[in-house]
């Protein structure tokens, strides 16, 4: 296969004949549908560099096919690492202007309001940043690119940055991946930047599950920074309603229960539906659980009558993982502080054998039919 791929190299250059370029790319795209095909492609760095170059092809279908190839290749963790490791100067095809590295190239098209491959480039960047050992490298790459996280947030939260139909929804998973890093979380939680407040409306964004899930994942990750919990729950951010509203249905509560709820959750309409995606529901519940680490925050969350929302969710929930997350959160909220006996649950020293036992019990519960 290696020899036949080398034969294709001369046809996947910027100046190659269009008809030959189309056929060559179709063949490569077919190979990206299997692990063995991707493995063969990644043995040729010059081919990967040529695909990056073709993102800049003046023929839009060619650029789109090249982007699809790179999306499929970057889904493989090892291949994603190889794309980040490419030595562009050494392996670029002769007589061709070397492209920029893959992070700079994808960012160029993501930020270009006239780019027709902006969404594909968001997907590539999402794939590159997904592996746990690569997201820090992607953060470094973004910081070196000349683009700032302020600019990334601006185009993501803008109503319509791209003028030719690209939605940039996959910047949501990119932010979720990158917010595994404390330095990105600290940026998002900067009290002077108002980033969190700009992201909150997307927890109920009906037009895209991808964007909604990416934002919820980002906010959940930010809840690991317990120094910011009081600020997140306070009036300046007021994050609790944004986490609870997607978990609420159209159940009717009496006036006393309604009055205790946050204003946004009082007297919900008959057509109110819960978040449809179980993974997103689970992330919301896990984020709320993180916010319950300190006593004063637990008391605040209890006082907002969170329990009644969770009670109705528990009756309705069918997904095992989300059900377990709901039960874990309810277990914290229904216990008195005297029963809990700790101000900060993060500081509780649980013996390793018990932690392993709890994890196994949770996994067994999720696997049960």
Topology:
Layout: H1 2-8, H2 18-31, H3 35-42, H4 45-54, H5 60-74, H6 77-85, H7 88-91, H8 102-111, H9 118-129, H10 135-144, H11 149-157, H12 171-178, H13 182-188, H14 195-199, H15 209-222, H16 229-233, H17 239-244, H18 255-260, H19 278-291, H20 295-303, H21 306-316, H22 320-334, H23 337-340, H24 352-367
Helix pairs in contact: 2-5, 4-5, 5-9, 8-9, 9-12, 12-15, 15-19, 19-22, 21-22
Describe the 3D structure:
The chain is an all-alpha fold. It is built from 24 helices and no strands. It has helices spanning 2-8, 18-31, 35-42, 45-54, 60-74, 77-85, 88-91, 102-111, 118-129, 135-144, 149-157, 171-178, 182-188, 195-199, 209-222, 229-233, 239-244, 255-260, 278-291, 295-303, 306-316, 320-334, 337-340, 352-367. The two termini are 45 Å apart. The model has no long low-confidence stretch (mean pLDDT 92).
Elements, N to C (H/E): HHHHHHHHHHHHHHHHHHHHHHHH
For the termini, the CA-CA separation is 45 Å
Our estimate of the beta-strand percent is under 5%
Number of helices: 24
Largest sheet: none
Helical residue percent band? 55-70%
Q: Which whole number gives the mean pLDDT? A: 92
Counting helices, strands and paired strands, the structural category is: mainly alpha
Instruction: List low-pLDDT spans.
Output: none
> Could you say which overall geometry the principal axes of the C-alpha atoms support?
elongated
Rg computed from alpha carbons, rounded to a whole number of angstroms: 24 Å
Features:
369 residues; mainly alpha; 62% helix; 0% strand
Question: What is shown here, in short?
Answer:
The protein is mainly alpha-helical and 369 residues long.
């Amino acid at each position: 296969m290696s020899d036949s791929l080398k034969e294709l190299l001369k046809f996947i250059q910027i100046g190659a004949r269009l008809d030959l370029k189309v056929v060559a790319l179709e063949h490569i795209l077919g190979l990206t549908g299997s692990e063995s095909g991707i493995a063969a492609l990644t043995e040729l760095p010059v081919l990967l560099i040529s695909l990056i170059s073709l993102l800049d092809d003046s023929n839009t279908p060619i650029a789109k096919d090249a982007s699809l190839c790179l999306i499929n290749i970057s889904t493989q963790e090892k291949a994603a690492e190889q794309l980040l490791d490419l030595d562009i100067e050494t392996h670029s095809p002769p007589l061709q202007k070397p492209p920029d590295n893959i992070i700079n190239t994808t960012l160029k098209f993501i930020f270009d309001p006239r780019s027709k491959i902006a969404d594909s480039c968001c997907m590539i960047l999402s794939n590159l940043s997904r592996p746990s050992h690569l997201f820090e490298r992607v953060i470094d790459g973004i910081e070196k690119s000349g683009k700032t996280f302020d600019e990334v947030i601006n185009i993501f939260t803008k109503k319509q940055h791209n003028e030719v139909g690209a939605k940039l929804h996959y910047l949501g998973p990119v932010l979720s991946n990158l917010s595994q890093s404390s330095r990105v979380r600290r940026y998002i939680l900067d009290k002077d930047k108002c980033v969190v407040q700009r992201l909150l409306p997307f927890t109920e964004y009906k037009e895209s599950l991808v964007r909604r899930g990416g934002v919820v994942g980002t906010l959940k990750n930010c809840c690991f920074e317990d120094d910011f919990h009081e600020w997140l729950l306070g009036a300046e951010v007021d994050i609790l309603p944004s986490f609870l509203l997607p978990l609420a249905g159209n159940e009717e509560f009496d006036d006393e229960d309604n009055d205790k709820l946050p204003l946004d959750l009082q007297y919900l309409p008959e057509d109110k539906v819960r978040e449809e995606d179980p993974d997103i529901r689970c992330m919301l519940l896990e984020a709320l659980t993180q916010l319950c680490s300190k006593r004063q925050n637990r008391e605040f969350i209890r006082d907002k009558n969170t329990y009644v929302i969770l009670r109705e969710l528990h009756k309705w929930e069918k997904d095992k993982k989300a059900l377990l997350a709901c039960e874990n959160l309810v277990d914290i909220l229904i216990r008195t502080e005297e029963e809990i006996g700790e101000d900060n649950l993060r500081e509780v020293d649980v013996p390793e054998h018990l932690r392993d036992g709890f994890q196994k019990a949770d996994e067994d519960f999720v696997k049960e039919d």
